[in-house]
Predict the structure.
Amino acid sequence: MAGETENYVELRHINKTFKNYKASDDIHFGIEKGKLVGLLGPSGSGKTTILRMIAGLETADSGDIVIDGRVVNDVAASKRGIGFVFQNYALFRYMTVYDNIAFGLTVNKCKKSDIKKRVEELIELVDLKGLERRYPSQLSGGQRQRVAFARALAPNPELLLLDEPFAAIDAKVRQELRSWLREMITRVGITSIFVTHDQDEAIEVADEIIITNRGRIEQIGSPGDIYSAPKTAFVAEFMGSPTRISNISEFKGYEQLDRTIHAVVRPENVSVTKKTEKSRYPASVEHGIVERVLFRGRELELAVRVHGVLLTANRRLEEARIAEGEAVDVFIYRVYAFHENEEVQIVDNANVGTENLFYI
Amino acid sequence: MGERRKKKKRVIPGFGLSIGITVTMLGLIVVIPLCSLILFSAQLSLPGFIETVTRPRVLSSYLVSFQTALAAAVVDAVMGLIIAWVLVRYDFPGKAVMNGIIELPFALPTAVAGIALTHLTTTNGWVGGFFDRMFGIRIAYTRLGITVALIFIGIPFVVRSVCPVLEKIDLQYEEAANILGANSRQTLFRVILPEITPALLAGFTMSFARGLGEYGSVVFIAGNMPYETEIAPLMIMSELQEFDYASATSIALVMLLTAFVILLANAAIQSRNSKIVSGIS
């Protein structure tokens, strides 16, 4: 993390409890100016609470929130210089697109001509020209998000907060909007924090990801770091939809590991070959039985039982078909191993190096 | 709407059957009785009809009815909104009881309400006595008394139409307005009120229309002085007592038309609003 003074937003030892549920447990992190940060975690992990506390919609029980060098604990939400995009956008239904975007300016008694100029500028930016007179109900999900985005930006905030910005949009448009939002935020150059439970979304959109779990921060880092070098058991199990293996030392290539150690393996680190196909590492493949074959569109998802563990693996469509119930060879390239609540260790299959030479 | 039409399976079987039932019910309990009203008044010639419905005493009864019903509806709208707000937004002991009491005017025989209110508001009654002594205001046997009775009759209409809408308003609207810098007054008038205006208007219209036609609770408290506190439904009653059915139905027809115009205006406003919300352009 960067030095304390460089951070534009800073949360210092924040605690927050709802009734008997600890939503934030000593939350402490900083965000540099201009960064696009994703708060990622399962539902109920406290990520939205963090966002709402930064916005001033919730008050922390203890700790300080600092925005631009100023402690804002007692500053009203409207005076924090933030824009907020709500999960369902919360567009005012009885106002046109124009009036929605202008709302933040009209309530602050800006000059009519200034408002007009600013709103037109934003409509241009989010590409909604010609729709100014429409009501929110007459817009598509994507267009509504654009209006919500423009409305939040209208009063020129320094910090933009987005709560599950893609949750209300159907899958197809979502992909498109991710890159759109990323591009917009880069163009405007505004420091932004968004909340999501979708790891693909976080990896694709964010410069930096903060992973939350049970009111705590598990790991902070770039999407690449988080994905390839998980620091805690939770992150290792959360990212990349892995399978948990409690008897990893029984697998070939991992015999060196302690018997009490647990591990997770991701589908992309498992290779499944038919008995008739040549495996890359014939000496260290495991015998497995395919229990389920799922068609995933781009690829097949296989569930293979090995040493009593049901592993998930992917297989390309153009490869020879594998039937349910078929006996196959399974090779595990890499696992993330950890003792309960200890640091995660990346373990590659011990036979990769040696056998590779032989194969070439 | 387009989507709904595409659906093959419906809960209620067959458009034909359900529209048939709808038309029959409406015909039997609304249209046919009202048509008979028109037929009855057709016994009079047009000049005779106009003469009947514009007699000074009748005209002043329209005015009394209109004035008091309008005043009552306005009070109901404001007070009903506040009651609905409290019932939806706050939790307090006795809330369920209060929620039930609101509907009492629906269930109570209107004459009972009329007698009770009269008893309370005469110069000998608790409330009437207080106002008479303190401010010199008489309630019973004045237009004020009529208004009081109509307020009582009309308030559940407003509360019951506003409550469900208020419950559905997402807190996010208020939060969004708050972050964008709106103070609570601006939030109330620009964000929340537009959301509940259609429901409020519907409640207002219903209580107004009900007030125009209310008879039972008003006759006791009104005192029924010609030109002063005679309401239009009372005029109909007195014509009936003189067996002048044609005059009675003529006045009734005027009231019917008035009510129809009011409800039609309301329907037009509601349909405009639902277009904004549902997005059918």
